[in-house]
Amino acid sequence: MSVMLECKSLSVRFDGLAALSDVTFRVQEGDLFGVIGPNGAGKTTLFNVISGTLRPTSGEVYFQGRRISGLAPGRICRLGIAGTFQPVRPFASLSVFENVLVGACFGRDRRGASKDSERHAHEALRFVGLESKADRIAQDLTPAEKKRLEIARALATDPQVILLDEVLSGLTQVETTEILALVRRIQDKGITAMLIEHVMRVVMELCGTVLVLHHGARLAQGTPQEVMNNPEVIEAYLG
Amino acid sequence: MMAGRRPSVSFSVAVFAVAAVFAVLPAMTVSYGLVWLFLVAVYLTLAVSYDIVGGTMGHMNLGHASFFGLGAYSTVILMNQGLSFWAAVALAVPVTVLFAALISYPFTRLTGAYFALGTFGLISLMNVLAHNLRDLTGGSGGISTPPGDRTVEAYYLAVIAAGATIALSRSIARSRFGLALRSIREDADTARAFGVPVDLYKCGALVISSAPAAFIGGVYAWKATYISPSSVFGLEIALSPIVMTMLGGSGTAAGPIVGVVFLTIAQELLWTRIPYLHLAMYGVIMVIIGLLMPGGIVRSRWFRRVMTRMGMSSRWMD
Q1: Which of B2, B185, B193 sits opposite A74 (nearest CB)?
Q2: Which CATH architecture is the domain A1-80+161-239 placed in?
């Protein structure tokens, strides 16, 4: 196991408000790394910094030992980090297939032959179980299907790290189970996953490592068991 | 490049039939009809090239006519330097494309209404320049080319330009570039996150759309033999192609074509049949289309049903 992703004392400030302060952690290759914390803890901010859509005020992000903070988001995507959005942001009037094709055409490492883009897009759709809806317009999908679509678009970029921002929020029990199975299969493919989640049961079941953020700072990190028994975490969640 | 459905045979036949009719028309029609068709082809070229940026990329370029006017002025000025029309227009197009490339970066920083208003201001700027650079443009009095009747040649050139622009816009729509432009239209930040070179492609789309407009501007000036600031930078030429595109269905392949054909025919019928109220009626027609078919004629259900039955691929209507 090697270190896939490393954040070193990341801080993000918006006009004096600290969204993240001095956050440091490592993500091991193949791990399912959970990020939890109350609303406003800085979870999505953290993802935005990793994906490059937000520049940290200070600190660095390293991907496979290479510094990526400061690179353009498209560059980071091609290096192998792709994600989903919360709330979902599919290209609304494009078809499901075209949505995924954007990822396959532009988000993959350029060394691959461009003719393969359509095949990669189809593969990603098949993987998430949306193949039969390929010609549908994205905005006509159900919320659960939109989440799958976002996962497919990220997978089409052939990522090594996938960032899943609340892929389970707003889903029914059955849909949650299905997406959970999908997340497990993504992990089985050898893709390292980072997961923002509110449902504690999911985090306890799935994740190998959990990072707890509170007011933008790292409150705790460890196995789900360790984190749940941490008095500070209990304080933050119940107090 | 998307799912490879070929247009049906009957539709291809229809396209050839239309082309054949256009080819033999000059031998049959009176010159008035030819001049009218020439203007239809000019509007078609402007509308279809406008829609690469306005429809596919979703940036309403109200200043598209500035490329038309620049192409027209450049052609006339160069012809007056002793160049043939062909040499003049062959220089006027690159001059306009260069201009488009220079303005593309600052202007594509803008989005939505800001882009529309910014580009609209571009026409005013060109207008002021045309009025005041008298030695070059003849000021408000306009400028003439060497005289000559070029109705038939200009007609053929305009029809070819319109056909080529439609082909260009189709090939863009089917390419990776077109897919990227549509993803930018939907959500530029998400497109950027997935590796789409947003800034470069936005500039590229604007530059590409400027070339047909510049060429047709040159042809227009050559045929008219006289242009003035108001004839090439006026509201009519600036807004008509855009209004026609929107009423036809902006962002679809058939939309600008249907809009131009329908509205120019409506305009023609109205002003010959209803002498005093034709402009009011024209306005009423536009309001009715806008109310009943908010996505444009092409996106309305009856149009799709009729066209699908006639064998038109749904690709032209999406």
Answers
A1: B193
A2: 3-Layer(aba) Sandwich (3.40)
